Amino acid sequence: MASARAWASRLLGVAALMMAAATHAAEVSRDGLTLGPADSKQVLILHASNSVQVFKGVLEDFSQLNPGIRLEYTELSTQQLYQDTVDRKRVDPQARRGPDLIISSAMDLQTKLVNDGYAQVHVSPQTRALPAWANWRDEVFSIGTDPIVMVYNTDKLDATRVPHTRRELLSLLQAPDRPLAGSISTYDVQGSGIGYLAATQDTRLDSMAGALLAAFGRNGVTTHESTEDALDKLERGEVTLAYNLLESYTRHRIDQGARLAIIYPQDYTLMLSRSAIIPKQAPRGDLGALLLDYLLSPRGQDMLARQSGMRPVNASVIAEAGVRPMALGVGLLVYLDALKKRHFLDLWRAAILPPEEESR
Fold this sequence. Notes:
Elements: H1 2-24, E1 27-29, E2 32-35, E3 43-48, H2 52-65, E4 70-75, H3 78-91, E5 101-104, H4 107-115, H5 125-128, E6 135-136, E7 140-153, H6 166-173, E8 184-187, H7 193-205, H8 209-218, E9 222-224, H9 227-236, E10 241-246, H10 247-255, E11 260-263, E12 271-277, H11 285-296, H12 298-308, H13 338-352, H14 355-358
Parallel strand pairs: 3-4, 3-5, 8-9, 8-10
Antiparallel strand pairs: 1-2, 2-4, 5-12, 6-7, 7-10, 7-11, 7-12
């Protein structure tokens, strides 16, 4: 009888564990993730441009440390993250709604939100420990960095012809046999915040950026909306080389067996930040701050590096390669000026788009 009671008790214990697991089970969709108890009164809303699959392990670790919090994550484009924040304030500036934390790879747009008064101050031991380039006004913070690289399909481009600088890429585009004609891709800067940031930084740093854009156009360049979009094209063999992709997503694909290779341009390699802000309208800014401090903690930084492939903030300067992250701050706002942006996009369209598409 005693053993029967013990057996029943064990069964009840297993059932309770199964119910708890079900309550905390991850609900994953193509563009979202939910973790934690469905009936929790502590709901943390995160909006970010990070890929759900790449960021999932990091958020699961946070959820395990904070089992009472329900975390609702939505993946959005960098432009939508920015525009949604602006629209919420325009519709009802006093309302407490929207996300509690926003993470975006378009660090210029995040900086603009701070500059225009859409973020709240957060000070903690974790934010105080950040280097100066990674914290601006205690309102926008780098949680990790990502080099912007070139990527090629190893089955389609011979190793002897791989370009290691932008000048070598230009020479390859101008080669008589035109090996990249109709087989090169770059960001559509009209709709991608990160694409626009990378392209304008190229213009700022490189005197031959205009010539490279013109060569893209002459070679029938296609455009991609995201790094994931470009990697899909590369894996399918639709393009041979893609310009300005995020290293972390590319590394993830290569680890999964994709026959791709990364080029770190030797003339300069841009290093952008995945930056985070706590919006002023956040319903639970305290929970947003909790997640931010976790991401900046030693454990969070280690998880970000291992799970998402981002580089930890304190390991972002690669002195021997001359690579330094772009600093958060007003310098990023130059090409967000309306007149400068319109002028840049006009030049980009003239160089990249076919005449019939440009006229639409």
